[in-house]
Amino acid sequence: MKIYLAARYSKHPEMRERAEELRKLGYTVQARWINGGHGISYDAITPLDRQRFAEEDLEDLATCDCIVSFTEKPGTAVRGGGRHFEAGYAFCAGIRNIVVGYREHVFHNLEDIEFYSTWEECLAELAREAEATL
Fold first, then answer.
1. CATH classification of the domain holding 63
2. Beta-carbon neighbour count of residue 112 at 10 Å?
């Protein structure tokens, strides 16, 4: 199964760690953004670069069977929110949608959205699924 990881950009180092954990279970992670290089801040990159990054993210997501979105505690001031667009895109495309952390908005309560309070819970479920396919 191919998985796309979605989170605020500043979490890209953590997402590389999550990707490695998933690869050890036999999953493929398709999310170029986790490798960094998208600029220190939104203002540090050009509009053309931002467009290219968005297109790359959607290309990666379109090849996946599942998106895992890492959310923020409600009330936390976080700039951006591309992960919400990505999750909505995935939902409309029929891609399995998993949320880890918090239910940031009403759409995280939809029946087809899988929810885990912690990464450890989510990883344990994905490990069970990987083992069942062997």
1. 3.40.50.450
2. 8
